[in-house]
Known about the structure:
Layout: H1 2-14, H2 17-32, H3 38-50, H4 58-79
Amino acid sequence: MQEFADECHKMVSEMEESDFVNHITSMMKEKQEPDLALEDEVLRNWSEVTTSEYVFDRRHREVSAIWNVTNLVQLRTATT
């Protein structure tokens, strides 16, 4: 697990800022896209039920988490 975290840190720290911003922006846009078919929404919500997690706003929470982590990374990079 630590090796994975170290590799991610290395990758992000070596990434051009514009590439980092583009990657984060596209990831957030993808998570905010509406379901294209009712079946997609049903499957996503049914998965929440079958796993007993019941996090029906998971995509919204993931976007918020990405935003928070991005801000932390940028803050950390600015201070080092």
